[in-house]
Amino acid sequence: MSDELPTAARVSDPGVRSLYRLENRWQSWLDVEVALAMAQAELGIIPQPAADAIARAARMEFLDRVRIDEGFARTGHTIVPLVWELSRIVGEPYGGWVHWGATTQNITQTGDLLVLRQAHRIFLRLIARALAAMADLAERGADMPIAGRTHGQHAVPATFGYKPAVWIDEMHVPARTIGDHLAENICLLGLLAATCGKIAREIYTLMKTEYGEVEEPVPPGTVGSSTMPQKRNPKLCQDIIAAAAEVRGSVPLALEAMQTEHEADRTTSLIMEAAEARACIATGDMLARLVEVLKGLRLDPLRMRRNLDLGGGLIMAEAVMLDLGAAIGRQHAHDVVYDAAQAAFVEGRPFGKLLAEDPRVTAHLDSNAIEKLLDPTAYTGLCSEIARDAAARARTTAGEIAREVTTT
């Protein structure tokens, strides 16, 4: 009797499900915490012994799952209970360096990409096996005559080997009868539309009365409402958002149009033609309006600053935590600043005053240091440099596109 597993059992899970088990996802986050700590140690941001201790401790089998689950139930936070437990296992004097300077998304997004890389390897192995099987079929059926069919009717004779040959092409380079290249174009337009829609939505939001930080072009004489004269509506942004949704809505149609029956099928051609027309027209409308919005966008730095100060310094809680954390450890500093921040929010008291009244803070930071840490203009990091670098790259790319369009 053969020990080989039944076919269903062999193919039910190629190994991807286990990658997306919660424990494996957590381990990928821990792996990122280790990589972060090692990089920070190399740059002199944290002590090398701290990074080594974090690397030794960052294994799921060393962590207390009950503590982690209890932490998630209590905080509802994506990663904080895991960081707490890792800090506990690392212990003194290095536990306070865990997750130093990192955000939740830094860790989870990078860790999830590590999982995706593992899944990608499985996909590639499976694709290789599928291609090998197609090659076998193409060779076995190379000389087996079969009716070629288009539009559901006999066309001209072919061989069965031709069918897997087409499938092989679909996995490699698109051919005339394959919709991959057309569908890919619409999928790319969908990605472009998602980005344009995101930009327009951000401007739409920042233009709301409660924000008032930017405003799309509103030419003199523009009427926002027939009954409310005060209205200055984000008409162009709304157009962009709507057009972007239409482009994205064409993507499923394009993918559906790839499901061609036999050697050709007019049904899918009609679907692809409709999807392409809709997507291209809407993309043109979307991009034309986006250009107008971006060229004429009015910025209000004074309103931006007023909004920045709405929290009475709470926006600088991270800066205080990191500075204090250098003396008492990141997690302890988080707890101290958390207490002050929550009291400021709930009781309506000044954040800086609460910090200055806490002996856990004043033991390490005087009033001048606290005031300096609460200055948001000193905490923008590399934003200015990033903005100017991006502007230079954008102008370079725009110039390259202009030259390419002119010469073709």
Number of helices: 18
Structural class: mainly alpha
- The backbone outline, from C-alpha atoms, is flat
Strand order of the largest sheet: 1-2
Helical coverage, percent range: 55-70%
Poorly predicted ranges (pLDDT <50, ≥5 residues)? none
Give me the Rg, rounded.
29 Å
- Report on the biggest sheet: 2 strands, antiparallel
Mean pLDDT across residues: 89
Percent strand equals: under 5%
Our measurement of the CA-to-CA distance between the termini, rounded to an integer number of angstroms, reads 68 Å
Note the run of SSEs as H and E.
Answer: HHHHHHHEEHHEHHEHHHHHHH
Counted beta strands: 4
Description of the structure:
This protein has 18 helices and four strands. With 408 residues, the protein is mainly alpha-helical. It has a two-stranded antiparallel sheet. A two-stranded antiparallel ribbon has the order 3-4. A hairpin with a 2-residue loop joins strand 1 (145-150) and strand 2 (153-159). It is flat and about 90 Å long. The model has no long low-confidence stretch (mean pLDDT 89).
Secondary structure: elements and pairs:
Layout: H1 7-11, H2 16-19, H3 22-42, H4 48-57, H5 65-75, H6 80-90, H7 104-140, E1 145-150, E2 153-159, H8 162-171, H9 180-206, E3 214-215, H10 235-256, H11 266-296, E4 298-299, H12 301-308, H13 317-328, H14 330-347, H15 351-357, H16 359-362, H17 367-373, H18 383-407
Antiparallel strand pairs: 1-2, 3-4
Helix pairs in contact: 3-4, 3-7, 4-6, 5-6, 7-8, 9-10, 9-11, 10-11, 13-14
